[in-house]
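Re: the multi-chain job from yesterday

Posting the exact lines I submitted so nobody has to dig through the queue logs.
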Amino acid sequence: MAMTGVLRPGHAQIRVLDLEESIHFYTEVVGLKETGRDAQGRVYFKAWDEHDHNSVILRQADRAGLDFFGFKVLDEATLTLLEKGIQAQGVATERMPAGEMLATGERVRFTIPTGHVIELYATKDRVGNGLPTVNPDAWPDGLKGMAPTRMDHCLLYGPDIDGARDLLEKALSFALVERVKLEDGETDLAIWLTTSTKAHDIAFVRHGEMGKLHHVAFKLDTWEQVLRAADIMSKNKVSIDIGPTRHGVTRGLTIYFFDPSGNRLETFCGGYDWYPDMETIKWTWDEVGKGVFYHDRKLNERFLSVVS
Amino acid sequence: MTQTETPESFSVAIQDTGETYRCRTDQTVLEGMERLGRKGIPVGCRQGGCGVCKVAVLSGSYVAKVMNRDHVSAEDEACGRVLSCRIRPTTDLQVQVLGSMKKTVCRPAPLNGLGEQT
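And the result, structure tokens for all chains:
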């Protein structure tokens, strides 16, 4: 698939209860690189193999959770086109001015039916991945912690996941890759959507409260690195939810863990390649445990209960 | 070689289950329970965010770290309704469980959402 329109997840702004403790965690334990701080006190980070200025923004607040999740689009003309497409679905949009976020151009902001604020943008300053573009080595020196290559996707919880899917499919050309059905065999409990050739770029679970975060995920290259990430979690007394294990859905290899404010994060690798000629994969209610945690074959209590 | 001293510990009693365990002063009440394989307080994120481990401290004193205001109001905090993952004992404690896992996938759920409205 030619990559046009929405390219990839670009940034997640996460609320934290103690900024200094969180900066230490995201830099030394997760292994992101701090790239700046703004006048509002927000702190910006990127994963090492990302070329743009930031992908994770922390904001101190008295409540944990996700402020907004942003996708990068091809160019400014595409941004305007997609903005009109969202409006054509009856959804209001707002332009956030260039520079409101460090090193970031204008953003088109809108709220999806699950209550989450989603943004699109075309421009973010390129700072590179620490390697030259001529004859680069395999990885840069000085990596810390788990050192994921990029911020990869998120899983969001909210009531109207059908409305969210409809909007993302119609206005932004996302595609439904996998789904888990509820006991009635009709209603979706959970859906995984892609805007690329990844098995998922965003996912949703049906949930009573609006605008909740289940997790933001960071990509590692190998299963060995996922195991090493688990070692780093134990060395640093990080609260692990589950893993290392495998998801049935997407076939990704995973650890769910929590940041110091109770926001769930994931380090994962693997997952298959998706193409637009593939059929949507369905998981039935009686096999949902295997779908989510392929080895345990049951949901842990926290999967549907603990969100921020 | 110097031997690290074991930190002081206090007794924590979970009123709902009658469970009692020793919790070190360098551990949270929830961490102390989990380390000893004890049960009684639901375990969520262990980081002050999700609210499932909320307890009412009926007696005793503790030190607390910052907690998510979605689950612990200023009034809650003043009255000892706190998250057990954010408090460390400074005396013996007696607690009552307030939090819970909001839903389980084994229980039929309304189609308009699996979570309880809060």
